[in-house]
Amino acid sequence: MGDSEAMVSEGYTSAPYGDYNASAATVESTGQETAPIVDASHSVNNDSLVNGTAPVENGSATDNVAVTAPAAEHGDNTGSTLSTEEERLWNIVRANSLEFNAWTALIDETERIAQDNIAKIRKVYDAFLAEFPLCYGYWKKFADHEARVGAMDKVVEVYERAVLGVTYSVDIWLHYCTFAINTYGDPETIRRLFERALVYVGTDFLSSPLWDKYIEYEYMQQDWSRVALIYTRILENPIQNLDRYFSSFKELAETRPLSELRSAEESAAAAVAVAGDASESAASESGEKADEGRSQVDGSTEQSPKLESASSTEPEELKKYVGIREAMYIKSKEFESKIIGYEMAIRRPYFHVRPLNVAELENWHNYLDFIERDGDFNKVVKLYERCVVTCANYPEYWIRYVTNMEASGSADLAENALARATQVFVKKQPEIHLFAARLKEQNGDIAGARAAYQLVHSEISPGLLEAVIKHANMEYRLGNLDDAFSLYEQVIAVEKGKEHSTILPLLYAQYSRFSYLVSRDAEKARRIIVEALDHVQPSKPLMEALIHFEAIQPPPREIDYLEQLVEKVIKPDADAQNIASSTEREELSLIYIEFLGIFGDVKSIKKAEDQHVKLFYPHRSTSELKKRSADDFLASDRTKMAKTYNGTPPAQPVSNAYPNAQAQWSGGYAAQPQTWPPAQAAPAQPQQWNPAYGQQAAYGAYGGYPAGYTAPQAPTPVPQAAAYGAYPAQTYPTQSYAPPVAAAAPAAALVQQPAAAVAPQAYYNTYY
């Protein structure tokens, strides 16, 4: 057995894996490519094409995942030095391996300079495809380079790596089969390759080009029974162009004898059926003869029916043969009518670096919902595999895939999909690792869960608040309270060493709250906040935490102390850097007024309200004034209408007391994600992770989502050395959040996202 034959027989297992973040748009298949004609003296054993184990799913990650290109044999010995442009581009991609445009420019430059220097070409393609294994067009170009220099073993190797890296791509299998047809003469070898392909993509709605190529090949062989069998298999599946295939099948049935259309198995089955009919007919004839004798005795002259002549047998059999396939066709068309809307909404069935639009992302979710309801597990898996090619940069689809497989009891498939997501395609996005940590903890793999959190802390997104909170919560659940406290303290220590840390106030506030929830130690919680004020300027998130902490403590409450700190934040000070925005300052002022309304006295309330009016009313924007004027006009109209009917003016809404009433504690603040519990309440339990958590709204652990928030369409991978902070906005799943009721909401926003009645939520609701 030759080297290439052994390679395929054992399965090619060293294919490179990398971040799925590329496009093959510039080299898309038209389905009409012709593989280079090669010298037969260089060809490999035909069996090497087909006798291997079938490839695992797209970019499958195993226990021994390779994350670099298999270029050891090439190394840097490319036979020539790099040009200045090549050196520049290599430096770019080494610094950021996801810089796709730099990669494509490097490939173009290398091909221009290297010409027939195959070692140099191999090096750049190996490195590129290690990062972007789903770019089927670049696999095709790589194989063409190997074919041009006559290295047929290498061509087969490249194609085997390709179908391992992008298993559910109709196009790459079509390229491979086209190469085989143009290179080898053994029909069985080529057929086995087609059959390997059809195992994975034969039911794909867009698999017509591959089926067409298979039919074309069998027409060339004039093996009509195989052609008929291919049509039969096609008609069983709701794929594109079913009408054309059924018409072509009927045309074939009309032009070829039935004996040529039937396979050997079908002919044998038909012979058995004919023999059975003949036996039954003989028995029937014997009975009829006896009846005739009795009839003659009785004087009867009626004749028994005769069997149809042999000449009428074949038309009947042909009608039956076509009828069976027509029933398949009708059934497939019925299912096609249910999915055609989803399929037509898939504008980009292949991978591309450009983001998908919201409609396409929602369509994939809707399509998956439908197929899951249908209950065919094989269809579910195939559709998920198609989905994670197109949507590979969106963690939400990987998370959904893993969750569905877990719920279906397919732990192996779930583990495989999670490995591909965390090690290949979205490996630099924090939320997939946080999901993996939760799943591993759920399955009893505590060491794996800790490793996932540690990866986020050290490489993916150091200092990410969500990761710190979730990790600390897990340690607390496991009974390791000291480890949970230590985690907060370690991260706080790191952040204190930075000149400007936006996350430090959030960490202090969250640590204080966590400490109080799990230990009920009010003094420790207060010390944490006081320590925070020694290291950071008072800010909205820190003051919110302090106000709520005071709200749940028994009297007397330190209102005078709070007043000084609040004023330090809300009053503009030219001598000190105020890190709070004007909106944050106004919201904090309203929160403090609400607090005083419950725990203060009339004098303190008046002082705070007067200060609020003085600080924020004169700075209303023109748009706000216009909006308020419109509200007043509407209120006036409502008053007139009320007088018309009963002469009594309607009561004005409480929100009119403050033009920015949506930010008040009762209206906007209470709808924020988390809240301090009453002092007498039992410690709250951790809640299930919400993957849509984020912290880019300055105080994400405490603040709500903005009105009408919808996730941007495309994820941007997080660099390993990313600054402490929130996920990139692009990593969020496509979701819409009901906005809080706002008097000043723009009319356009109301059109795009109708306001929904939002029940007040707890101040904290995400983690505990």
UniProtKB/TrEMBL annotation:
What is any Pfam family matched here?
HAT_PRP39_N
Q: Which portions of the chain have biased composition (kind: Polar residues)? A: 297-313
Query: Ranges of Low complexity compositional bias?
Result: 670-689
Localization of this protein: Nucleus
Could you confirm whether the keyword Aminoacyl-tRNA synthetase appears in this record?
no
List the protein's name. Answer: Pre-mRNA-processing factor 39
Q: Cellular component GO terms, alphabetically?
A: nucleus
Region: Disordered; residue ranges are 278-314, 669-689
**SMART domains per UniProt:** HAT
The UniProt similarity line reads: Belongs to the PRP39 family.
Which PANTHER family does the record match to this protein? PRE-MRNA PROCESSING PROTEIN PRP39-RELATED (PTHR17204), PRE-MRNA-PROCESSING FACTOR 39 (PTHR17204:SF5)
**Keyword Amino-acid biosynthesis among record annotations:** no
Extract one GO BP annotation from the record.
RNA splicing
Spans of biased composition, class Basic and acidic residues? 286-295
Instruction: Give the UniProt keywords, A-Z.
Output: mRNA processing, mRNA splicing, Nucleus, Repeat
